[in-house]
Design a protein that fits this description.
A hairpin with a 2-residue loop joins strand 2 and strand 3. The chain has 6 helices and 7 strands, in the order αααααβββββββα. It has 233 residues and is of the alpha+beta class. The longest helix has 42 residues.
């Protein structure tokens, strides 16, 4: 019985290994097909299809050439920030990649083309929501909050509770650093907005009170027996 149990375990391990090998082989074949299709798409300048194919090929195989090609497609698309990040990943995960020096050179060139929007004037104690082209972006808070982007026309909206939104829109060039001073006006509360109305109303009521008091005193004097104000019937 003990021998049968050992044989059963060995048989299970063998089947698992075979299944894993088959699965690996299927993944490699799928990666090869995706890579070939991506190459064809790149030759036809169908960049979106090429990017999807190279990324899929790398995901399935881990072959650095697929990641290198994906970075090159991002470069062709003008997505310099994403291209830089793809080259960074290639250099970090594949120390022995044959074209490492070339990848480093391309990485540095792409990094130099990334534009930076410098947000200045954000209060350190406030909670902000900042959107770049409608997409919420995380903030590296400090004296200056930097937002990386690519060349083109962009719009920024900054929101903070209790303040009117701040908006900015303009075009930036490759590698340009744009300083944006964020000035937000505190939003008027209901009590503040009513203040200009309530002050003159209070003044009118105060004057009316004085007048009523004088009239009451005068009428009271008319009822005083010591006065000559006697009504003749």
């Amino acid at each position: 019985m003990r021998t049968l149990c050992v044989l059963a375990v060995l048989a299970t391990l063998a089947l698992t290994h075979t299944a894993a090998a088959q699965s690996t082989e299927a993944a490699r074949e799928e990666a090869r097909v995706a890579f070939v299709q991506a190459q064809e798409a790149a030759e036809q300048e169908r960049w979106a299809d090429a990017l999807q194919g190279f990324e899929q090929a790398y995901l399935l195989s881990g072959v650095p050439t697929a990641l290198y090609n994906a970075a090159m497609v991002l470069r062709a698309l003008g997505r310099h920030r994403d291209a830089r990040d793809a080259f960074d990943r290639l250099l970090a995960e594949h120390d022995d990649y044959a074209a490492r020096d070339e990848a480093q050179t391309l990485r540095d060139a792409e990094a130099a083309r990334v534009a930076v929007l410098e947000l200045v004037g954000l209060a350190t104690e406030g909670d902000y929501t900042v959107r770049l082209d409608g997409r919420t972006v995380p903030l590296d808070r400090g004296e200056t909050a930097n937002i990386e982007t690519d060349a083109g026309r962009h719009a920024i909206v900054a929101e903070r509770e209790g303040f009117d939104p701040f908006t900015w829109e303009d075009s930036v060039r490759d590698g340009q650093r744009v300083r944006i001073e964020v000035i937000m006006e505190e939003r008027e509360t209901e009590s503040r907005s009513l203040a200009p109305i309530l002050v003159p109303i209070a003044a009118v009521l105060a004057i009316a009170g004085v007048v009523l008091t004088l009239v009451f005193v005068r009428q009271a004097n008319q009822l005083d027996p010591a006065t000559d104000n006697v009504m003749n019937l």
